[in-house]
Structure formats: structure tokens, C-alpha cells
Design the sequence.
DNA sequence: TGACTTATGCCGAACAACGACATATGATCG
DNA sequence: CGATCATATGTCGTTGTTCGGCATAAGTCA
């Protein structure tokens, strides 16, 4: 029954899973303690919030601690890549309790891929000793633009056969719960955002892997754009890419030069043998001078594109992730070099360009958070209700 | 006393100045008629809302119409350019009732310029037969980045001497009312947005004049960025600008090639005499082939930069304004040519690139709307409360 | 003129939030 | 070891907001 503003606000504060006292909650939600008491009672009765043991000694009477009943349900969070899927279970607070990577191929089309994912999810649930009825929500990040209102993938270049396929409906045949679908980089942005960059209003998450994409956070909210195509920066034209022909048919695309495939292509032109983007990381780690240089050049190209993005939205943080980012410094150095050289002083003085901290789980963490928003009817990403308008003086 | 949510919601609906019946208001604010009645009574009593005559015949009893008491106060709205200022008076609904353009020079520094503006505002008030005590709010759009929280201009390249000058405080010495300061292109974006593009979630306003800047609207809200530098796209690097040195010290900046000054420079290199950006418009209108071509080239360069912006935020509308935009087709054609060629099909299929419709008053209209938000304690730009969460089933 | 339609005003009921008071529970100190 | 202090808890009456219902007003239309 938590449908009032106060209950929502309480959940919005408690959604991170940490426990709090009534006084803390009253302060955080800007209500009186009696109001918080009343609503907490309902939430506890409904099994949504748990009353924990008393706090350790302060001076006065110890207070009760309240926290989200994170174990009351399970969220299935999936990150889909071109050749694999990471299927994870999280508790209602977003803590990952189990995860497993399976091999799939998105070009096989939606049914077989989703079937494999759903099977894996069932297996994980069984292994965790959880009945399927415990599933409270399902979410998936996919490497395609997603239309915000409908959750449908639209014109996905990497995923022929998925165009406007109703993933939500398909999943609901198995798990009849809220289903969230969003772009893979968007969910990474959320994952990194809620774990490390809660306070930042504008943030950019860049994924450098087989392709290149961005997750865009503005005013603490994900940006989807009119067609779900926001953040599709792989086909920005950069000078470094020259006349190289991209798979999209254009020339000079960022992706054709700076993605895993693009770097491999650069190296191949120099006679260095690489099959795939994955090899590039191995080569750099092995100390290959050519590979290191190519990655740094790729970083510069990305930096060139980012300089423009910075001029447009002036973010305070840019997080670099994706498989290629795991080479670490060379890529980051290339990006920083151009970003700080080409950006206006005002926009770059406070700007931080950092590597993603959780390459493996950022995606599913973000998915879980977005699903949680739906399960609890919460808005936005922030830890607090929303910094909108303060109510009291 | 209108400080409750319901009163705010009512004002948020009525802010456009149109009149509505109680039933319409109840529907728009999602409250019962009795609630609306109660709050309207207070608002009418407070002189904030006016009760108008009855509606013309429907079938049943005619209803009363209610509208914002637009004449209860005056908003002073100013648009500051490098060499001039447009000082306007609007009613509380944002309707421009008087305006006058005065000559100033921003390089003289803030005090003399603001003094001239304030004097002009006083003159306009006197001419309108309005006492100064009628002024309910003051706003100004300035050609500089503005820090959102403080309203201070930061590191303005065009306005040396204005850095972190407290415009709000200075104005309040004369008019002790809410004072709003924002970037000139931001306010133009708001002005165009509320008059023609209310429904669009993502929108870009591009001003092409002496310099080049953008106003960025995402999720129906203005984007200021971490340092107020969002939309400062004049110094994006574009290939067309080649190695041309920009006043910012970098090379290849969009502004060095595609702004009024940049176009003049291009023409000068071809031996065509122009003193200033203003001349460019005259030359095109006079049928100069060189000037027309140069403007179209400028459009292409802008299109190149915009293609990147489109990839990042996927707007549904891009509005082109500024003095150079008044040449009309050549500029727009150049922009469209590159935008539609370089953008991903998904992002550009629904995208409209249009000319600003109100070159003269869009700025002050936007200023007035932003001031109105402060005067009535409203959030956002939208006509409706915010499409956030629907309250009933 | 009377039926019909639509708006209005007013009132009591339901609900949410608050502040205050009495009480509970531990630490701390003499 | 008991008194005191500090802090948290539960409950209750008050206040204010919102809702739905009912009687009534003010037009149109036949």
C-alpha cells in the first residue's frame, strides 16, 4: 500500500539498502517523526521494510534501525553483449547476489537469445534456493537504441531481427513482473553513477568495446532523446579516422578508428596480426609498442569527439569503460590529452576523466537500480527524493 | 499566500495567460473541483488570479473563466548583446507590452551598462504609466556563461570586467524583486520553446551572430552544466575552419569560420569588403554570390558540429536563430545538408531543423518566462505542472 | 414554460501531517 | 547502586487539505 508521497520518499531514501533511524529518515524526507513512524509501520507490516536491532550505544536510548527488506524479493538483471550475456540476481536494494556469464549470439535473433537468458535466470534462482515467485522485477541492458516510452529496440545495427521486438512481453510470459529494457551504456552509466558519482548532475559514461557508445546523464536523469538514440556517438566524424569506411556506410566515423575493431584494423594495416578487439588488450598488456600507440591514438580520437560533447553539456565527470578501457592508462592518456587541450578552460577546469571502477558489474548494477525504480514506483536515479523544491524553511 | 502544491499547480497551468474554467483547471491539475474552488478563491482574493466574465453559450449553465492577473505586475526582461540591449516590459503572463533597443557596449563593464538598462527600464515604466512598485521581477540574458546556483557570469570571453560581477545585487539596489540572470542563448531557447515547441523533450537552440552558442533543453529543462558552460559550442573544432586562428587562441574553431565575424573573414580573404557580421546579411540580401556561398559554407560547418550534438542527445528540434540566421535559406540549407548526411538515420528521421520564428522577441520572452518561474515559485518550463507521476488511476 | 444540461456553493467525512506529552531505555556520574 | 541525563518511542488530539455529495443557479432547447 505504499502509494503516498511520504512512503515513496521513505523508499527513495532507503533504496540504497543502508539502515537508518526514524530521526534520520524524518530529516531526510523532511517530515515529522510521527509521520515517518506511521508510514514506516505500514511499510514494515507490508514486508517492504525491516526493523533491525537497536543501534550501538550513543548517550541516550538506542534507536531502532530500519532498512529496505532487501531479501523480500529478487531482481533479475541482465547485460546483453554481442556475443555473451551476463545474467545476475540482485536483492531489492541492488546488491548482486549471484551472476553468471553465458555465451549467446545476438544475430540469432531475440527468441533463442532471450530463451537462453531466461533459462539461466531460472537456474540461478534454483541454485539460490529461491522460488520463481520471488522475482520482483526483470531488467536488461541491450546494445541497441531503446525507445523510452515503449521499451522497444529501434533500428539496432548490431542486432538485426530485434527491431521493435517486444522484449517486455516475451519476458513476461515467464516472469510476470515489471520488465525494464534500456540501452547497455545507459545502464552502465546508472551503475557507475549510483556507486561513485551520486552528487554529479551531468555525467558521461563512455563504453569503448567492439563499438563505441555513451550513456548521458543530465540534471541527474538519463537522457534517451527523441528516438532513444541519445549517446550513439560511435558514428561521429573525427579527423583521425580519415577516409576509413565504417560499417555504417559513412567515412571517418569514430568507431571505425577507435573501437576494438577499429584499433585492430589500424594494427592490421601495420602488419600486426589481430583477430578481434579482445586481442588488442592482450597485446598492450604484453607490451606491444604498436598496440599501445594505436590505443593511445584511439584515445585521442575519442577525446576529439568528447571535446565537442563537453562543449555541449559541460559534464563534471566522464567515465571511460568497456573492454578496451581495461588496458588502462594508454587509452585514458590519449583521451585526456585531447580533451584538456581542446576544451574551453571553463568547461574543463573541474572536469574529471576517469576509468570505470567496476568493469564487470556496473551494467547489471545499473539495470537493477532502474528495475528497482519501477518496482517501488520511484523516479530518477538519485539517493534522495529529488532536490526539487524544499518544503520547509 | 499561494504556497501549497495545489496553488502552484494552478499557477503552472495558468501561467500562459489563457483563461480556463474551474472544470478545466480541475482536470489539468488532477484535483477535485471543490479543491480547485477553494484555492482559486484564495488566489483571486490575493489578486493573483482574475475572475473573468462568463463563457459564451454551451448547453448548460455558463461557467466562470479564470486567468492569471497578468496586469497585476510588470516583469522587466532584458536581452543584452555585445553592442546593444533590448529592454522590454511584459505582463505577468509573459506578454510583451513595450520594448526598446538601446545602444551600449559591454566592454565598458557592468556598472555603466546596467545603469543604462535600468534607466531605460524606468523610462519604459513611466511611459506605460506604471509606478516602479509594480515591478514584480527582473531578468536579463547575457552573452556569457552563467553559474546556475549563483547567477554570476563566469569567465566571459566577450565581457571582460563582468567576471563574477553580482548583477542580481546591483539590480536589486533599484528594483528590490527577484532577479534572474542567464545566458542569452538559454533564454532564447526558452522563448522559442514555450511559444512553438512546448511538447518537445529535447531541443537545441543555435544562435549564429557575432559568435555562436547553443541553448540546450533536455527532459524539458534547460541544461547549464557543471560550470554554466553548457551550450558553448563556438569553439568546437570543425574541419571546414582549417587552421584558422580563433580569438580563443585555438585553431579550427567553429566560430572562427561560421560566425558573423568568421564569414566576414572568409569574404575578406576573397577580396570582398565587409566590416562586420551585419554586412554579411546585407550582402546576401543584395544577391552577392560570394556572400551567399560563404554563408552556405558556414551552414555546413555548423552542420558538422551539430551532427555530433545530435548523436549525443538526439533532439527532436533544432532551432536556428541569431542575426546571421535572418538571411534565411542559405544558412539553413547548408546546415541541413550536412546534418542529414552525417547523422544516423534513426536520430535524423524525425529531426526538424527550423529557423527561429521570432528573431526579435524570443530572448525577452524567454527571460520573462524564467522570471515568472521565480515570481510564482514554479519549476521547469512546461505549461503543465510536470508530466512526472500521474496521481490517480 | 418546462425539461435538460452544465456550473456553482456549501458541508461533512476521510485522511494526512504535525506538535506535544508521557514513557521507555540505555549511558553516565556521584 | 541509585539518581540523572540524553535520546528514542508511542499515542493522542488538533489542524489543514482534499474529496464527494447535494441542493441550487443559470443558461439552452423544444
Sequence:
Amino acid at each position: 500500500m505504499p502509494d503516498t508521497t511520504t512512503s515513496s520518499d521513505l523508499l527513495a531514501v532507503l533504496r540504497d539498502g543502508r539502515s537508518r533511524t526514524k530521526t534520520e529518515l524524518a530529516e531526510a524526507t523532511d517530515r515529522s517523526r510521527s509521520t515517518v513512524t506511521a508510514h514506516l509501520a505500514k511499510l514494515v507490516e507490508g514486508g517492504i521494510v525491516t526493523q533491525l536491532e537497536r543501534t550501538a550505544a550513543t548517550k541516550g536510548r538506542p534507536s531502532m534501525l530500519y532498512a529496505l527488506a532487501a531479501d523480500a524479493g529478487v531482481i533479475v538483471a541482465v547485460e546483453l553483449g554481442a556475443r555473451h550475456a551476463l545474467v545476475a540476481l540482485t536483492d531489492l536494494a541492488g546488491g548482486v547476489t549471484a551472476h553468471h556469464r553465458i555465451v549467446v549470439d545476438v544475430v540469432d535473433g531475440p527468441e533463442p537469445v532471450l530463451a537462453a537468458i531466461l533459462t539461466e535466470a531460472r537456474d540461478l534462482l534454483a541454485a539460490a534456493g529461491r522460488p520463481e515467485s520471488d522475482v520482483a522485477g526483470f531488467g536488461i541492458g541491450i546494445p541497441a537504441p531503446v525507445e523510452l516510452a515503449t521499451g522497444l529496440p529501434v533500428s539496432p545495427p548490431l542486432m538485426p531481427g530485434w527491431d521493435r521486438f517486444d522484449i517486455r512481453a516475451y519476458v513476461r510470459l515467464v516472469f510476470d513482473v515489471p520488465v525494464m529494457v534500456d540501452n547497455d551504456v545507459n545502464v552502465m552509466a546508472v551503475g557507475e553513477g549510483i556507486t561513485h558519482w551520486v552528487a554529479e548532475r551531468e555525467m558521461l559514461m563512455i563504453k569503448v568495446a567492439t563499438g563505441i557508445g555513451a550513456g548521458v546523464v543530465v540534471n541527474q536523469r538519463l537522457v534517451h532523446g527523441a528516438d532513444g538514440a541519445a549517446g550513439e556517438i560511435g558514428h561521429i566524424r573525427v579527423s583521425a579516422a580519415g577516409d576509413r569506411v565504417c560499417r555504417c556506410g559513412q567515412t571517418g566515423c569514430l568507431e571505425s578508428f577507435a573501437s576494438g575493431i577499429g584499433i585492430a584494423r589500424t594494427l592490421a594495416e601495420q602488419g600486426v596480426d589481430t583477430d578481434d578487439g579482445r586481442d588488442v588488450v592482450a597485446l598492450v598488456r604484453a607490451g606491444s609498442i604498436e598496440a599501445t600507440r594505436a590505443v593511445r591514438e584511439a584515445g585521442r580520437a575519442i577525446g576529439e569527439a568528447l571535446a565537442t560533447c563537453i562543449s555541449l553539456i559541460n559534464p563534471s565527470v566522464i567515465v571511460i569503460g568497456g573492454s578496451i578501457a581495461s588496458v588502462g592508462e594508454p587509452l585514458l592518456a590519449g583521451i585526456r590529452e585531447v580533451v584538456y587541450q581542446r576544451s574551453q578552460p571553463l568547461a574543463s577546469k573541474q572536469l574529471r576523466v576517469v576509468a570505470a571502477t567496476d568493469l564487470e558489474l556496473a551494467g547489471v548494477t545499473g539495470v537493477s537500480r532502474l528495475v528497482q525504480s519501477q518496482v517501488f514506483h520511484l523516479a530518477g536515479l538519485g539517493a534522495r527524493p529529488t532536490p526539487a523544491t524544499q518544503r520547509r524553511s
Observations:
- The radius of gyration of chain A is 22 Å.
- Residues 4, 6, 31-35, 38, 54, 57-62 of chain A lie near DNA strand C (CB under 10 Å from a C1').
- Chain A touches chain B through 51 residues (CB under 8 Å).
